[in-house]
Design a protein that fits this description.
Blueprint (H helix, E strand, L loop, with lengths): L3 H6 L14 H21 L10 E6 L5 H12 L3 E5 L12 H11 L2 E5 L3 H11 L3 E5 L5 H15 L6 E5 L5 H13 L2 E5 L8 H14 L3 E4 L2 H5 L4 E4 L10 H8 L6 H6 L8 E4 L10 H9 L12 H4 L6 H20 L9
Parallel strand pairs: 1-2, 1-3, 3-4, 5-6, 5-8, 6-7, 8-9
Helix pairs in contact: 2-6, 2-14, 3-14, 4-5, 6-7, 6-14, 7-8
GO biological process, one term: citrulline biosynthetic process
Subcellular location: Cytoplasm
EC number: 2.1.3.3
Length: 349
């Protein structure tokens, strides 16, 4: 049986563009390493400087809060130097192609975080930069979020295998795709509860089923809320309208019946001490955002600023969304250190 360090070494120099880039054992190693880094920081107030002044380009075509902060602060904690490029401050994607930009970034930096649109652009960035590239989010996948999510789950329950995670909402967005595949890799039963027209693509389900055959995970894709949430340990939701989309009225009409409220949480039948709620944020759960206020005025059928989750659930003891958000930094540090860091500094004790 390989050690954690051996698994981490096997990821050296590699990009993390989607979950299936790594094996289930490697994904679990990233989760365990993230937990170790978090514990190290709690104990000593700092972590090992695995990055040794490595230079990191943080390229954002989409806006970000948690991902940006996690790469900037996490990179600094690990001893790296970060340069942030926002959606408007460079020639990238306008006067310079992805391939040409990748070659430039590869000459200037040791690693690249890329938050963009098409997964194919991620592939080009990794191919031509010659340095590790980390997918901070694409239209199809959100792999860095997954390490934080399953880290949060493992911290809460002490294990992963055999738990049931149910995603309720837009079942074909990047988070739902990534949860389905990652959970199947790790032996977590994943239920996607969504209207029929918002079920994940067959290719995503097929990939998850392939991993599930080895891990023993059970997959369910259903529009039936009662059936889908029954027996859940984790209820997970996300915003109804993803970045780059504008079809608010359509999503409200489709997903309002799938709002995560206290009645839905009770439908799980799971004891309170074995049930948590998660959300990758931001969340529309109250009237303290301009977007939520405007949505109530603008769209039919929406009588409250509470959209994908009610404020009652969001603020309840079930909620783990802020621990989950904090774990973004530790998990992203794990990914950067495993793929780019000096692992000779790792102490298994």
């Amino acid at each position: 049986m390989s050690t954690l360090l051996e698994e981490l070494k096997s990821m050296q120099g590699r990009s993390f563009l989607k979950e299936s880039d790594f094996t289930p054992t490697q994904i679990e190693a990233l989760i365990d390493f993230a937990i170790n880094l978090k514990n190290e920081h709690k104990k000593y107030g700092k972590v090992t400087k695995y990055l040794h002044d490595k230079d990191l380009v943080l390229l954002f075509q989409k806006t970000s809060t948690r991902t940006r902060l996690s790469f900037e602060l996490g990179g600094d904690d690990l001893g790296g130097n970060t340069a942030y490029i926002d959606p408007t401050s460079s020639q990238f994607g306008k006067k310079e192609s992805v391939e040409d930009s990748a070659r430039v970034f590869g000459e200037l930096a040791d690693g690249i975080e890329y938050r963009g649109f098409e997964q194919s652009d991620m592939d080009i960035m990794a191919k031509y930069s010659g340095v590790p590239v980390w997918n901070g989010l694409s239209n199809e996948w959100h792999p860095t979020q997954m390490i934080a999510d399953f880290m949060t789950i493992k911290e809460n329950f002490g294990h992963l295998k055999g738990l049931t995670l149910t995603f309720v909402g837009d079942g074909r967005n990047n988070v739902a795709n990534s949860l389905l595949v990652t959970g199947s890799m790790l032996g977590v039963n994943v239920h996607i509860v969504a209207p029929d027209e918002l079920h994940p693509e067959k290719s995503v389900v097929d990939l998850a089923e392939k991993y599930a055959q080895d891990s023993g995970a059970k997959i369910m894709i259903t529009s039936d809320i009662d059936k889908g949430v029954k027996g859940s340990n984790i209820v997970y939701t996300d915003v109804w309208v993803s970045m780059g989309e504008t079809n608010w009225q359509q999503r409200i009409d489709q997903l309002l019946p799938y709002q995560v409220n206290m009645d839905l949480m009770k439908k799980t039948g799971t004891p309170d001490d074995e049930l948590i709620f998660m959300h990758c944020l931001p969340a529309f759960h109250d009237d303290n955002t301009t977007t939520a206020k405007e949505a109530v005025k603008k769209y039919k059928g929406l009588d409250s600023p509470e959209m994908e989750v009610t404020d009652e659930v969001f603020r309840s003891p079930y909620g783990r969304q802020f621990v989950e958000a904090g774990n973004r930094k530790h998990s992203i540090m794990s990914i950067m250190a495993a793929t780019l860091g000096d692992l000779s500094m790792y102490n298994e004790n």
